[in-house]
Every structure is written in structure tokens, then in C-alpha cells.
Input
Amino acid sequence: MTRPRRLPPSYQLDYHPVMNNEKIAKHLSQLADLLEFTGANSFRLRAYRNGARIIKELPDSIASMIEADQDLTNLDGIGKGVAEKCQELVNSGRLKQLDEILESVPKTVLDLLNVPKLGPKKCAALFNELGIQSLDQLKAACEAQQVRLLSGFGAKTEEAILQGIAIAVLANERILWADADKIAQDLGAHMSSCSAIRQTKFAGSYRRGKETVGDLDLLVDSDDSETVMDHFGKYEEITSVIVRGETKMSVRLEDEFQVDLRVVPEESFGAALQYFTGSKDHNVLVRGRAKQMGLKVNEWGVFEVNDSDERRIAGQSELEVYESLDLPYFPPEIREARRELDWAKNNELPELIELGDIRGDLHMHTTATDGKASIEEMADAAIAIGLSYIAITDHSQRVSMANGLTPERLLDQWKTIDRINANRPDGFAILKGIECDILESGGMDLPDEVLAQGDFIIASVHYGQNQSRQQITDRITGALENPHVSMIAHPTGRLLNKREAYEVDIEAVFQAAKANQKMVELNANPIRLDLNDIHLLAAKTHGIPVVINTDAHRTLGLSNMRFGIKQARRGCLSAADVANTLPLADFIKMLDR
Ligand code: DGT
Ligand code: CA
Ligand code: CA
Ligand code: ZN
Output
């Protein structure tokens, strides 16, 4: 391998910490996508896409490997071409080839790739044959019925594209909470080295734990806004400054993601935090309450207003703001103007679930199907994070592309689990489970006499997601009527920013779950978060036990539980509403109902 060109130290410092594996992967897959628009040969595209996938999941930093002069081509699936691109990225922060393509292909074509079911090939055809460069133009072309004329498209595809544009537009505007969290952690760390700052807090939808976040709202408690803004401006991920005022500054990071900074004095910090946490509708209720009491509340504090002057009675802490209005402290996740004010009035504010309440994780995969770790490795990782039981729930045979389990392989796996359990001295339990598909025609993918031998049977819809509302609802309620099924997984099938929920009558699902004493899942994968917050509150109201699961496909996936907890809190769930907060014996009792 040729030695990477050594760059002046300052230049390296600019890029090394920034060019992490995730970014390298993103550049590579963008390069592949854009090459597709130029009609490049597919062999190279595949190499870049594979490289991107591998690098994204690599535990070691590519930048450090390059710095240590290690040969990247020793990594499985990384060839000379990809290795060279990595070097170029780490050394210069850019890819010359990518810059060149962008001179003739506008970057907005990449937005087309966010339309569900529109792969790179079809997007390239739209660009090359119809000159479509953006979602707006795509919409216009669909409406003018031009898209259906292209070979390989047709009226049905055109219709589907038109429907998918909305989700693609949204994907451009909002990012997953988990991705916002990465930015917040990183930016928070950057801000913490500024000595002019007393405290920082992220407010807005991020603080409320909303499943997707439009922009980040950063509040800083300081008397020296110039120093704070200078420091903020040095954050290495900033691509442009939108506006800088006296105490406010807005910037864009990569992909146009916006961060709003506000510097506020100590005596107003709590009021500002309350105001900018929102939601807007919650604030309307709070202001209404203040008005009733003859008070005024804004981002500077709570004030008594007399004819000529105002006197501040609260503002330094959020708690103080709420207390001055005779209100309890509202956890940010429930500030959505749903029922929180009524609950407060009746002293019924729920005590929300916390990560530490969780004792088990009942949905995960192993190397037997599409997981990356063995049963024992998953168990050890679960023990390490403090769980006392798990269920191993690989896919069933219908999911052939994930090597789904036949009855024979499943029964074998369960024997193995029995053996592992028998040899464990620590009391940790592995439940024998399966994520059994609900077939397109209805009914379970594995025979009853097999399911009867398991401890925790999950029913899932993976195929036939385009069926009618009646068909899908019938399939799910049918599964809930099966005596061996314990829980329905990711009940609506939505993938945030990627795929709408399938058509399902969720109320009918709840009725069936209730009638058959079954559980419903809150899938904690940050792209699923399924059930959503509104559904969760409905499930709670029906008294249907919710199970929060990670659906982990590797040991690290078990740590996704925290995303599920955020969502559960938004759904106003307490520990008592969530079955996997129970000790094992009680959980099993609940299964045996
Ligand atoms: P996002 O960014 O779209 O995910 O949602 P938020 O809730 O973070 O909204 P954002 O960033 O526009 O504003 C942050 C908070 O500031 C919002 O939740 C409530 C407060 N806020 C902003 N503008 C207004 C306003 O015009 N009236 C009131 N009452 N509150 C506002
Ligand atoms: Ca925001
Ligand atoms: Ca904002
Ligand atoms: Zn699964």
C-alpha cells in the first residue's frame, strides 16, 4: 500500500476527528448513487456500496487505521478502489470524483432515492430520460402522466411514486431522534469546553423525545453571548451560518440540518427552557393557565403585571416556572397538549417508565437467521447491561432471505437453549421464542404443535404489506386468536422516513389483543418505534400489556432499548404498563394466563 500523503498538522486536525466511519460510508454510497446517474459500470458501484456497508459496521476507526499505516485491503470486502477512496477522504475530507460528478448532476437528484420503492436504477432513468432533478419535478412529471411512459414504469408505479413523494419530502426535513441524539451529544461535548458557559440544554422536539426532529434548539446559560457564539461557530460540523444576532445564532450542518442557539441570562434560563421545549400547543395551555391567575409567562420568566410595571416571580428553573403557576413539573415527553393539564389538575400525572425498570428483552435474532451473534453472546451481552431474561426469537421459514427456521431447525435451537439454561449458574433465563410470520393468506408460518413447545411466540407481518385494510387486520387478529401466540411485533410496520404503516385497523387489533389476553410490542429500533406514542396511550387505556423490545440483530442492538423507553414515555406509559419490567416469574405467570 502506498503511504498516505502526509498533510500539514493543522489540516489533519481539521479532518481526522470528523471523517469517522459513518461519514466515509455515506460518501461512498453517495458516490455509488451518483455514479448510477452517470451510467457507470455496475461492478464499481457494487464495490462502493459493499464497502460502505462494511465500513459502517466496522468496530475500528478507518481514520486511525490509515494513520497507523494499516493496509485497508486486509479487511474483508474492501478492495483497492475503496481503500483509495478512504485514504482520499481521511486525508483531504473530500472525494474529487464526487465533486466532479456534482458539476453535472445536481445533488437534489439524491432526494429521489428517498421515495419508497424507487431504487437507484429507476431514479437514474427518471433523471436521464425525463431530466427530473428534484422531488418537485418528479411530482409534476407524475401528475402530467409522463412517468408511466418510461419503460419499466407504468401507471401503477406512477401512482405509487406520487404517493411516496410525501414521505421523501418529510425525510428531507426531519431526521430520526437517534441521529439527532448523536449530533446533540457531539455538539454538547464541543460546547462543554467553553468557560463562559454555566449550563447548556437542548430543548425543542429533541428534548420531548419526538420520533423525528426538525431542528435542534440549543440553550446556553451565560452572560457572555459573544464568546459563546464564537465558540459555537467553531463546531467543526457547521457548513454555513444562517444568521448571527446579539444572543441568537442559527447554523446549518451537513445535509442542511439546522441548529438554533440562544444565549440567555441565568435568571431566565428555566423560563427559556420551558418555552423552547414546547410543544407550541403545550405552551398555549400554560399561557392560558397563567392568564387565569392574572400572570404573564414568556421565555424570560413568569411575571405579575400591574398597571405600570412587571415583577418577575419565577424564571431561573423550569420547576419554579411550573410551580409559580400551581402546576407540577411535566416530563418533556408528555408536553404535547394531550391530557397532561387534566392529569395535573386531578393529581393523576403518571410516573413514567425509566430504562432501569426494564428486566427483559423479548425479541432478538442470532446467527441462526439474520443476526450477527450466537445465543450465548446475546445472553452475555444482556447480562452485561443488567437484564435478567431474554427471548431468542429468530425468523420463521417464510423469511427465506433471512434463512428463516424450519420446524426442525427451530426445535433444535430450542434444545440448545434448554441445554444452555441448564448449565447457567446465574439464574439468568433464556426463553425459547420465535418471530413467526403471519402468512399472506392468514395463519401462522409454523404448525401449532411446534409453537406449543415454545415459551414466547411472536407473530409478525413481513409479507403482503400492500394488502387491503380488511385483509391485514384479519391476518393480525387471526394471529392474536391463536392460543400459542404471545405478542404481535411492530404492529403497524412503519419505517420512519422510509415506509408508511400498512393499512391496519389498530383499534380492531387492540380489541383482539384484549379479548385474547395478548401483548403488543413497542419495537425500540429507532427507525421503527412501532407502536407510536398515540397507539401506546390507547393500549394503556385498554389495559393491554406493552412489551418494549430491541429486535437486536447484534449484541450492540440491545442498547436500542433507550429509544423504546423515550417513545414509551411519550405514550405516557408507567412501568406497570410494560410487561418486561416484571421479574421473570411474574412475566411467565402473565404469559400463562
Ligand atoms: P421541530 O423542530 O419541528 O422538530 O419541533 P420543535 O418543537 O422543536 O419546534 P421549533 O424548533 O420550531 O421550536 C422549538 C420550541 O419553541 C417549540 O416547541 C415551542 C417554542 N416555539 C417556537 N416558536 C413558537 C411560537 O411561535 N409560539 C410559541 N408559543 N412557542 C414557540
Ligand atoms: Ca426544534
Ligand atoms: Ca428551532
Ligand atoms: Zn425481529
Q: What stands out?
A: Residues 363, 365, 435, 551 surround zinc ion (ligand 4) (CB under 6 Å). The chain is about 45% helix and 15% strand. Confidence is low (pLDDT under 50) at residues 1-17.
